Amino acid sequence: MYLYLILVKLVFIAPVCVSLQQKRENVRSLAMGGHVGFESLPDQLVNRSIQQGFCFNILCVGETGIGKSTLIDTLFNTNFEDHESSHFYPHVKLKAQTYELQESNVRLKLTIVNTVGFGDQINKEESMNMVIIDAQFEAIALALPTYHDSLCTYHSHFLYSPLPQKDAGPLKMKSVNVIPVIAKADAISKSELHKFKIKLMSELVSNGVQIYQFPTDDETIAKINASMNGHLPFAVVGSMDEVKVGNKMVKARQYPWGVVQVENENHCDFVKLREMLICTNMEDLREQTHTRHYELYRRCKLEEMGLTDVGPENKPLSLQETYEAKRHEFYGELQRKEEEMKQMFVQRVKEKEAILKEAERELQAKFEHLKRVHQEERMKLEEKRRLLEEEIIAFSKKKATSEIYQNQTFMASGSNLRKDKDRKK
């Protein structure tokens, strides 16, 4: 069983046009004296729109191989020749491709953005983080070039629950229209499909997911839209293969036990889905995204910046008053930051001075120690020198005494020899 949840949104770069409600009782109705020509304004608008063409962008979110490309091909009756993606991407990335389509004299610039590698990782919790709708809104607010999703198809593959808890969170986004669609509806019986629809809608409501309701304020489409709101979620089958049924070729899926026709409302709700999304309510989806979702995002963004239209006591404030209040707040914050930086600088200077003084004290103590050691060594050397000089003097005295004694001995022995010679004569 598979599930498509279709999120529809469009963002315009043009500024918001707010229509002022005028009191009907104060407006005078006048009759003109002749033809003026402003009756052609609708024709001018249509001609200008046809000349400029239209843009439609689709963001496809879902696991690889779940049937995203087949659904888009079937919706637009075109083979976009999208190459199959691998299941081994380490991260999710966005792949955008733009095509030019033309039906009669209406040109459509279609951009298909695919989430390559979505749900193929072991940890699937971060898969949806790659699809950031608010980032596109912010790019619009900053007037940056970007693509703006007109239709976001969310494809969820589940086995036990129609709406997994990990998928419920992203669907609660207030910046997109949500339309639930059950894909590959030919995989289950009609009774199981009916039970599954009820369970899916129940889980969407219990998880706080707001479903887009087709508008019923236009009398021309109110009846069909009210009827289609009761058919949600749509159960569809997608296929570009043509099979011969009777005397004509139809888009269908061929099975050994029979044929499932894509455009047969007795087989699936694909025709209802295409009629509601493209033929009937595409402009309303675009307008809802611009006037509701983008404006809600812009309001929240301005409130985050502190730019509100009411004061602390719920009194209305002008833009100038809000600006001055915010400027005063920022100025006070700036002064506080400057004071903190000054205090931090003074504290760091004191800490550095203390470190330098401690290093200086240690160097001085080391110098004094080395000086004392040097002095002690010098005194020891002086003492050894003095003792050596005393030993030299004592040795010299002993040497002189010894020489005198030797001379005396030599002279005495010479005198005795002469006396002996004289005696022998």
UniProtKB/TrEMBL annotation:
Residues in Septin-type G domain copies: 52-304
Location, primary (coarse class): cytoplasm
GO MF annotation: an example: GTP binding
SUPFAM superfamilies (alphabetical): P-loop containing nucleoside triphosphate hydrolases
Segment forming the signal sequence: 1-19
One term under GO cellular component: cytoskeleton
Keyword field: Coiled coil, Cytoplasm, Cytoskeleton, GTP-binding, Nucleotide-binding, Signal
Pfam family name, one: Septin
Its biological purpose: Filament-forming cytoskeletal GTPase.
Family: Belongs to the TRAFAC class TrmE-Era-EngA-EngB-Septin-like GTPase superfamily. Septin GTPase family.
Protein name: Septin
Organism listed in the record: Equus asinus (Donkey)
